[in-house]
Amino acid sequence: MNTNPFGPNPALIQAVRDAGHDRYPDPAYTGVRERLGAWHGVDADSVGVAVGASDLLHRLARATLAPGDTLLSVRAPFGELARAAALARAQVVITPDLPAELPAGTRLLYVGYPHNPTGFAPPPGALLPLADRCAQAGALLVVDEAYAPFTALSAPPSHPALVRVLSPGKAHGLVGARPAYALAHPDVIAALDNLAPAWHVPAGTAGVLAALPYAAQFLAETLPRVAALASDLAGALDRLGRVEHHGTPFMTLRVGAAGPVSAQLLDAGLRVRDCASYGLPDCIRVSTRHAGENAALVRALKKLRRVEARHG
């Protein structure tokens, strides 16, 4: 699982416990928006709250994509966004790098910042020109920052055509609460809000979002440890195959046929991600866990390699 193995953040668990579960939350989530807006230096009407990034991406697709429109993605998009585009009867076009021009009909340009599972991220300075290009084409640039806290990437710039999607549960080890929010132009946030049902974020998740500005100490204490474990794991895996690792808690490992390797590891009680759906059928995605779990994975992969060599 691509989440902080030292979680969940105790401060955010306390926020869930302290939430008013006996009553409906404020349907406008005004206090949550104000607190997140102040934290990021934007007005409250530039903040939209959600249950998971999937929720935001589905609403973005519904708000922007019509049949025949294009979702352009730098490398393979998050699966839920591709599904949302398919439901809108839009086409998904994948490009390996930042586009110099947008294809006709592009309404959304998706960039993982960094990309899952490859770890690719554009230079921060490239985002503003890309947002300008989107604005000229009548499109929105969607920057998915799910894994940005694990890296040294700087915050994307403000731009009317740029939508930042943040799902902090991964860095805080609290994915089960599904906290997520968007930072965007007020018109975009209003369109997203219009597509959400009333009270769409439960009190506990809203409490987590409101507590985020005061929960950063956990990240300062644990993320360097995650980075060290990831570096050690990448070094160990590099002796077994070609590893692509860019400072994220996850990495890809070329194993030949990813499907059978993933199945064999699952039989051994180890779950990795077959990357065929990302267009990488020869790769598995490996996530950093505690040292003992990482060592168990390396041992299992070595065992598979020995078995393969005997039957090769």
What is the structure about, briefly put?
This protein is of the alpha/beta class. It has helices at 10-18, 30-40, 52-64, 79-87, 127-137, 186-194, 203-211, 216-238, 258-267, 291-311, and strands at residues 47-51, 70-74, 91-95, 106-112, 140-144, 162-166, 179-183, 243-244, 250-254, 273-274, 283-287.
Category by helix and strand content: alpha/beta
Strand order of the largest sheet: 1-7-6-5-4-2-3
Structure annotation, total helices = 10
- The level-1 CATH class of the largest domain: Alpha Beta
Low-confidence stretches: none
Structural summary, described in words:
By secondary structure, the chain is α/β, with parallel strands linked by helices. It has two domains: 10-214, Type I PLP-dependent aspartate aminotransferase-like (Major domain) (Aspartate Aminotransferase, domain 2); 217-311, Aspartate Aminotransferase, domain 1 (Alpha-Beta Complex). It contains ten helices and eleven strands. The chain has helices at residues 10-18, 30-40, 52-64, 79-87, 127-137, 186-194, 203-211, 216-238, 258-267, 291-311, and strands at residues 47-51, 70-74, 91-95, 106-112, 140-144, 162-166, 179-183, 243-244, 250-254, 273-274, 283-287. The chain has a seven-stranded mixed β-sheet, with helices on both faces. Helix 1 crosses helix 7, helix 2 runs parallel beside helix 7 and helix 8 (216-238) packs parallel to helix 10 (291-311). The longest helix has 23 residues, at 216-238.
